Design the sequence.
């Protein structure tokens, strides 16, 4: 009986260490990407996310990089194709790496408001979710402050814990920051190229 208790205690300790290690890695990754604050909550099937971040590049450069989303790629975003473009609006199809190696294609419509330093977007004809989001940029000279707000309504129930949905929402935003820094060829705090952010 004592041996079983020791083994069980060892497994519990390993699980706690693994969880703490993963959380530390996520916090470290977010800081290196430029994330400053985050708030993710939900009321039923409606999720709200608010993030602030700082990118060490001028506002116009950051605005242009976000506008040209078709040039951004990372481990989660496999491909971006322009469906249509007219004036200050652009519709794109984004191929995202899904569970089990599947590719999920999402259509988004962007509207660019350079005079307001704002970019808004929403999902188009998505049977799983309806997302409305906005980037508000503030020029800080050599850097840009990003204030991001997102509301996502899940149109179908997902049989996963709330913590998983939070991690997905957070992970997508952090990946956007990492990709933005990589696209702009920015250096991280430790002096390495942002393409080398992953340990």
Sequence:
């Amino acid at each position: 009986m004592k041996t079983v208790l020791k083994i069980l205690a060892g497994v519990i300790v390993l699980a706690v260490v693994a969880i703490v290690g993963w959380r530390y890695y996520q916090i470290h990754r977010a800081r290196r990407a430029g994330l400053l604050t985050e708030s993710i909550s939900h009321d039923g099937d409606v999720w709200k996310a608010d993030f602030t971040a700082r990118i060490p590049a001028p506002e116009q450069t950051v605005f242009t990089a976000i506008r040209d989303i078709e040039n951004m790629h990372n481990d989660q975003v496999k491909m971006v194709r322009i469906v249509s473009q007219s004036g200050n609006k652009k519709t794109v199809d984004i191929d995202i790496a899904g569970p089990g190696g599947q590719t999920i294609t999402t259509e988004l419509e962007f509207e660019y408001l350079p005079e307001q330093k704002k970019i808004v977007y929403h999902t188009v004809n998505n049977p799983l979710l309806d997302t409305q989001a906005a980037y508000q940029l503030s020029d800080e000279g050599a850097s840009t402050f990003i204030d991001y707000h997102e509301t996502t309504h899940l149109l179908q129930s997902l049989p996963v814990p709330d913590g998983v949905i939070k991690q997905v929402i957070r992970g997508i935003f952090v990946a956007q920051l990492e990709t933005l820094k990589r696209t702009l060829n920015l250096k991280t705090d430790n002096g390495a190229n942002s393409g080398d952010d992953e340990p």
